[in-house]
Amino acid sequence: QKEVEQNSGPLSVPEGAIASLNCTYSDRVSQSFFWYRQYSGKSPELIMSIYSNGDKEDGRFTAQLNKASQYVSLLIRDSQPSDSATYLCAPHRSNDYKLSFGAGTTVTVRA
Amino acid sequence: DAGVIQSPRHEVTEMGQEVTLRCKPISGHNSLFWYRQTMMRGLELLIYFNNNVPIDDSGMPEDRFSAKMPNASFSTLKIQPSEPRDSAVYFCASSLAKGFEQFFGPGTRLTVL
Hints:
The complex is a heterodimer of chains A (111) and B (113). Chain A is mainly beta.
């Protein structure tokens, strides 16, 4: 089993719709969870971090965390063509330095 | 405030040549990470430092790869000799401390012919 698994893409959604990205992780000790966005040819950019169970909203983005189920998700509301990118899930153990990155889910927003 | 700085942004070299990639972390960040990204293998952690000391280099693929961090504001990743399979985008990232978010540099796209 991979450390971090993300729903396979590509995920194609119409403009204005909700894009739902899922991530499961195997390490129960993970405490912090980060979502990165990577545009084609660019570097990963941190867009969300979540530390506690429940929802965290930031603009059009909502992260949801369920540690019991070892599941974290990212919702993009009112999707825009500028949201077309690959989204990387990265759980983190509090007693470690490194992040474990998922393979990423590529999202394409159709105008 | 400047983010993570990497140089060069692009490097094209011939097989067998030495390649040196450079990174300047965000000022005040204590941890530095080197990653490699390819389509086939995704984002791979090569090595990371904390307070200029290498903590884990288990991701370094071969002895041809080496990394140093002589001070808090500079790190290098060297490949000697380079091979075509080393072609990838190499990212440097830094974080404030253990458990904090990592911030990535723009990357160096390496092509080994």
